[in-house]
UniProtKB/TrEMBL annotation:
Keywords recorded for this protein, A-Z: Heme, Iron, Membrane, Metal-binding, Signal, Transmembrane, Transmembrane helix
Species: Maribacter aquivivus
Signal peptide: 1-30
Protein name: Quinol:cytochrome c oxidoreductase pentaheme cytochrome subunit
Span of domain Cytochrome c: 48-146
Residue stretches spanning the membrane: 173-192, 227-248
PANTHER family, per database record: CYTOCHROME C7-LIKE DOMAIN-CONTAINING PROTEIN, LIPOPROTEIN CYTOCHROME C
PROSITE patterns associated with the record: CYTC
Upper lineage: Bacteria, Pseudomonadati, Bacteroidota, Flavobacteriia, Flavobacteriales
GO MF, one example: electron transfer activity
């Protein structure tokens, strides 16, 4: 019989087919670059600057007024046109009212006194520093109703469909056809390979791989080598012990834990955009072991007036459409707060029908470890971000640090004690600085590594 080497014709043919396939796909999947529409949108000129009016409204009016609902004062949407049509009052009356409302009331103005009585004689703050131009801007903002998205006309829908279909056939159909063709090529090559093998056997040709002498299996050769077996067993045992130790050291370590809360609270919006001090909400961190979860009345200190989220166009918290964090989403979470605390937006009063909010705890130390927030926050002056990370950047609060014993010990070894303004530490510092021969003492040198400090 003849012996011919197996030249693996199947692999060569398969490689050529792949090259042809890639060359075929490239021109079909190329897309035309869309041409951007360069037409500019015309902005109608109004009597006032609505953009500046929005800033003035938020600064001076938003505490008591909203555009589309009653608060401490009436709704102000289209207030100029409504007063003109319903009461016959012109812009000069608004100038006088905004700059000095008590004076208008004392003058005996009928509508001013009616409004004053309707809102329980709540005096409106006078704004004598606002110019007529500023008031024009505010009125322009109150008159600028949010533009609704126009419904697409039938012709627009057809045009969009024509644009979509301008390439003839969708990319999905083209790719599906290419996959089918490639699959058929693979099947054909397999059939050709089997046919060639049968022809070779019929002509008495034996491939080298079929005539090769049988060799000892690798697993049998490995089992017969006792030294190699011993080394492998030692490596496996040491590796298993290493990974088992690492796994056990992670028990109770929840770094990165970020549970979903019943009411979405964005630290990025509150602490980041609005610069709210951490200890305004977590006030017990100054005087207590626990930092505490703020009660809902703390939230309502602001959200009696802040009933919707309008965003911060110039800040980091722009609408995150990809993750669903839109203005409507945040406003919906404020409504959840109102439902939980029992707040009626229409009457601006509590109904008494409140529901507890079951917050999910994030940071949780084991029972045998003692930690006091006031000792670190008030006495040591440790910043919240030292342990909790960049909270002002967190949309969803998560555990930033591992909170393990080793992590605490490292901090005690590296952190110098704050002795300024604390007579007790000044006395201890004077004694121990001589003993250790150092200028600054760390928490560890003051006994911060003693077991009884945290475990008792």
């Amino acid at each position: 019989m003849k012996k011919v080497p197996n030249r693996n014709q199947f692999s060569k043919i398969l490689g050529l087919s792949l090259i042809v396939f890639l060359l075929f796909v490239s021109p079909l999947t190329a897309q035309d670059t869309p041409v951007a529409d360069a037409s500019a949108t015309e902005v109608a000129a109004g009597a006032g600057d609505a953009k500046n009016g929005k800033a003035l409204f938020n600064q001076n009016c938003a505490a008591c007024h909203a555009l589309n609902r009653k608060m401490t004062g009436p709704a102000l949407e289209n207030v100029e046109s409504r007063l003109s049509e319903d009461e016959g009052l012109d812009k000069d009356w608004l100038y006088a009212w905004i700059k000095n409302s008590p004076g208008v009331i004392k003058s005996g103005d009928a509508y001013a006194n009616k409004l004053y009585a309707e809102y329980n004689q709540a005096a409106m703050t006078a704004f004598p520093t606002l110019s007529n131009s500023d008031i024009d801007d505010i009125l322009a903002y109150t008159a600028a109703a949010p533009a609704a998205a126009p419904a697409p006309a039938a012709g627009d829908v057809q045009a969009a469909a024509a644009t979509t279909g301008s390439s003839g056939v969708s990319n999905e159909i083209i790719l599906g056809a290419l996959v089918l063709v490639f699959g058929l090529l693979v099947v054909m090559l397999l059939l050709v390979n089997k046919t060639l093998q049968r022809i070779a056997q019929a002509n008495g040709i034996v491939l080298e791989k079929d005539n090769a002498a049988k060799r000892t299996p690798i697993w049998k050769a490995f089992a017969q080598n006792q030294f190699l077996v011993l080394v492998t067993a030692i490596i496996l045992l040491l590796g298993s012990a290493y990974f088992a130790y690492g796994w056990m050291m992670q028990v109770g370590v929840d770094q990165g834990y970020a549970p979903i809360q019943p009411i979405h609270y964005s630290h990025k919006v509150h602490a980041g955009d609005n610069k709210i001090e951490c200890k305004y909400c977590h006030s017990s961190a100054r005087v207590s072991k626990h930092s505490g979860i703020p009660s809902l009345n703390v939230c309502m200190n602001c959200h009696k007036s802040v009933y919707e989220y309008t965003g911060n166009p110039e800040g980091p918290s722009q609408e995150d459409l990809e993750n669903g964090y839109t203005n409507e989403f945040y406003t919906g979470e404020i409504k959840k707060l109102y439902k939980a605390v029992g707040w009626d937006e229409e009457t601006q009063s509590y109904t008494g029908d409140s529901q507890p909010v079951e917050w999910v705890r994030i940071h949780n130390l084991p029972d045998f470890a003692y930690f006091n927030h006031s000792q670190h926050v008030s006495v040591a002056g440790v910043e919240c971000q030292t342990c909790h990370g960049p909270v002002e950047e967190m949309e969803i609060m998560y555990q930033y640090s591992p909170l393990t014993m080793g992590w605490c010990i490292d901090c005690h070894r590296e952190t110098n004690v704050k002795v300024e303004g604390n007579e007790y530490y000044e006395k201890i510092h004077a004694e121990l600085s001589k003993k250790y021969g150092v200028e600054n003492l760390t928490a560890a040198q003051l006994g911060g590594l003693e077991c009884g400090k945290c475990h008792y």
